[in-house]
Amino acid sequence: MLSRTAAALYWLGRYVERADFIARLVEATIRLDALSARPAGEAAWQSALAVSYTDDAFAATGRSLTQADVAHFLTLDAANPGSIIRCLERARNNARAVRTALTRDAWTAINRAWLMFQTRANTRSATETLNLVEQVKGETRGFEGSIHRMMRNEATWLIQLGAAVERADNTARLVDVKYHLLLPAGEAVGGVVDRDQWTTILQTVSAVNAYRWLYKEGLQPAKVIDLLISRIELPRSLAACADEAVGILSQLAKRTGLQGEADRMARARLARVQKTRTSDVIVSGLHEHLNAFIRENAMLDAAISRQFRFI
Amino acid sequence: MGTGGAFDEIWGHGGPESPRPEFQALSRWVAGTAAEELHRRQQSAEAAFRQLGITFAVYGDNDAAERIIPFDIVPRIFLHHEWSRLCEGLMQRVQAINAFLEDIYGERRILAEGLIPPELIYRNDQFRPEVAGIRPPHGIWAHICGIDLVRTGADEFFVLEDNARTPSGVSYMLENREAMLRLCPELFREFRVAPVDSYPDRLLETMRSVAPGNNADPVCVVLTPGHFNSAYYEHSFLADSMGVELVEAADLVVDDDIVWVQTIAGRVRVDVIYRRIDDDYLDPLTFRADSMLGVPGLIAAYRAGNVALINAPGNGIADDKAIYSYMPEIVRFYTGQDAKLPNVETWRCREPQALKYVLDHLPELVVKLVDGSGGYGMLVGPTASRQEIADFRAALIAEPHRYIAQPTLALSTVPTLVEQGLAPRHVDFRPFVLTGSDGVRVVPGGLTRVALREGSLVVNSSQGGGTKDSFVLLEDAPPGQSQSQRQSR
Predict the structure, then answer these.
(1) What ipTM describes this predicted complex?
(2) Nearest residue in chain A measured CA to CA from B245
(3) What pLDDT shows up at residue A227?
(4) What pairs with residue B245 in β-bridges?
């Protein structure tokens, strides 16, 4: 496989995953804003921007921290490099550059998602935004489905590797930011707003029911964190992402004979994640732990680029 | 009846009520299918093209950076015997083109014999002295030729243009067929249509046959300028359907006159490159130094005989419009036979007599820049305004050697779905001829382009033309006989 193709496939996986994540984030934030007893308002939207690394870019636009402005910025604003439309555009450009490595289904799925946005007018109301989010989720699911129907070769594994690395970063960032989301003045820890915020986290990663099945009890922040960090059953947990990266890298090694630093880093990370106890992390510093994970994930990303000679 | 009395490929000189005998069944199908239904199927085909990204980029048109080419649902059909005759002419012509290229970049016998004025070669932008003396692997130059044909009557086909550089459109031949199979399966029960889907296999065979040396398993690639190129869809489509890598210049490196492709497992040696980059941009060390699309050292590797380039650099001299008018002589010189496919009568404005004639008859003629393409830089006399004719006259007088002129032919029409229903629209046709070291192959089909505006003769996609599927019938069935009757025989 061409080095350029390998890089484009990997980034295709990352951008589709990112578009899906931003869609979920916007959806959860709208719910947090709308459904809580007292609207969480600005803080909710501020945290959505922080999770998606776009808080500075949004501040630079001078617009207000309202649902209409932030949701638009995160979904349809072509000037925001982190918006869904831009993620899909980059995914589509990567897919287009490597069409020969994709099946017709996979290409059509991503092209259709991109086309959907080409004809989108401004989305201002919450209902419109939720419709759009729903469509994005549907399209990315369609893309993932098509990937699973491709030949089990390096093309498939590289897309999935990109998705796994991106997902790990997204989850770590989500937990970190939401954990530090300040409660509005006068709100008690464990109160209604606090509880809504934790529910939002679970909604972002579609894990509300998973939580109930696994813990069989009411919502507790420590358990939400445990779910998102350690439970391998949850596809978006850090443990699951670390495990997936190891598995995909070994599939790639089998197919291509390429094995090296990226494999070693991924295995070491998995071993560490498996040994980690959530209660210890919370005591010793969740923020530090998550930041270390995010840094390590970026290093793994760089090692993958070297190992597969991305150009 | 065709527009302006032109021959209609389905209706002949009659009209929808009295089609050519072979096409009564098609006429019945059209008559029996509601116009709304035809429109619906056509729209569904175009929606599918859009989703598949079967698009082309329009330069300088930012609003619609990617467009689909309009697709028309009524096929143009070649009877079996029409096709057989065409094929003979096509193979003869391409054989002559290959011999001409071999000669021009080698011994130049044709110049020595005085058949072509030497300055027409040496002062031609399409002549590449850089590749003179190079003999491509297996002596083949024009591996893929797209020969543009027009028809003016039941038995009258003319060659309009020989495309021996990087002819495009073959993906439309294949995708149009896919669309027809999906949308109008009943037509394929009515007609026995020769399949076109073997084209990628034939192309790969052709590529493998010209690999340098005795490599039993040569590495073949398709080289694209990248996904902003207007024909990118076709490049990726061909690579994908052949199962070979689609590469960009950045993926290739030349070392010690050997071409390598950079893969995740390191370098792999490349034997055959189907390049979809123009000569000018192919190798900055040989051609344009400012090319960012090219591969430095590629021509040196080619000269060393280490890689086959498809098509060979320098081919432009064979499909140049100034050379075109000499094609009858060229065919006779190299094959010893008269051309089976005639040229359109052509005046070379570089010749004073011809120039005088052209200036006197501008409103009747089509005048073309010899180095123009895609419908640019041409005058269509009968539809031009006085001002346009006056401007062209001045341009002709200033630089006569840059122009040729041809009569406006009564191009054949094919019924085409327009807003009001079916109406005749002018078409041309581009079949694709493959030449390998093991022979010449023509897949039974090609690209039919249709001028969608009433009366228009301009079929180029960049000028708003559309495409149709082109059926080649496997046998000449008696008129009106259906498939089921044949099978019960």
Answers:
(1) 0.76
(2) A100
(3) 94
(4) B221
